[in-house]
From TrEMBL:
It is a single-pass membrane protein. PANTHER family: DESMOGLEIN FAMILY MEMBER (PTHR24025), NEURAL-CADHERIN (PTHR24025:SF31). GO terms for biological process: homophilic cell adhesion via plasma membrane adhesion molecules. The lineage of its organism: Eukaryota, Metazoa, Chordata, Cephalochordata, Leptocardii. The gene is LOC109478207. It comes from Branchiostoma belcheri. This is Cadherin-related family member 1-like.
Amino acid sequence: MKVQEDPTIFITDANDNSPVFQGIPYEVDVDENDMTQTSIFRVTATDADQGIGGTVSYFLEAGDETKFEVDRPTGIVNLKEELDYESSSVYQLRIRAQDGGGSLNGSQVFQSSTTVLIVNVVDGDDQPPLFLYFSIQVDKNTPLGTSIITINARDGDYGINNPIVYSAEGDDGTFSIDSTTGVISLAKTLDIGVYSFDVQARENSSVTRSTNTSVRITVVDVNGTSAGMPLGGLQD
């Protein structure tokens, strides 16, 4: 008696699929100077292949490796150090998802794909106001109440615009300053000479930060120059 056996055919899955990222595009906001939460995001990719060819590992392919790292097994993106909005307000991280490898057309191959994670740095209130140095000449016969010069300062945090409050320090009362506009006006009769005093710019916010600048007003006779111009650059 002849026994006929049916052959058993085993089909091996070829590693012919690349990992596919889920939920793209990726974008996250991160507060500057905040290391209380070092894990900022998680990227996820799936691979349709079976076995080791369906496993996925993650790599930071391009981006600032001094500040970011990617956990290979999980795809969790971690902060390595604090971010500073004034240095860089946005980062682009290119992340690669790679499978565990497998056979394809008789060769051992690894399939991969990439995506980009945009990290937006949220500006914190950590910088004092920025100021100009001011110097001006005025006529000694300038009428009382005349606006002499306007002091300008801005919030040192570029992503924040807190109101600035101005005040004079070391002035003998010859001049007055509008706390809101920074306009310095003549309050007393002038004598020929040089008047110097400081002006403080203070942020009107929950975190009080201030900066001082020097104001120099030179009083000349009736033939002197009455127009003024701020000199110098931004101070911090």
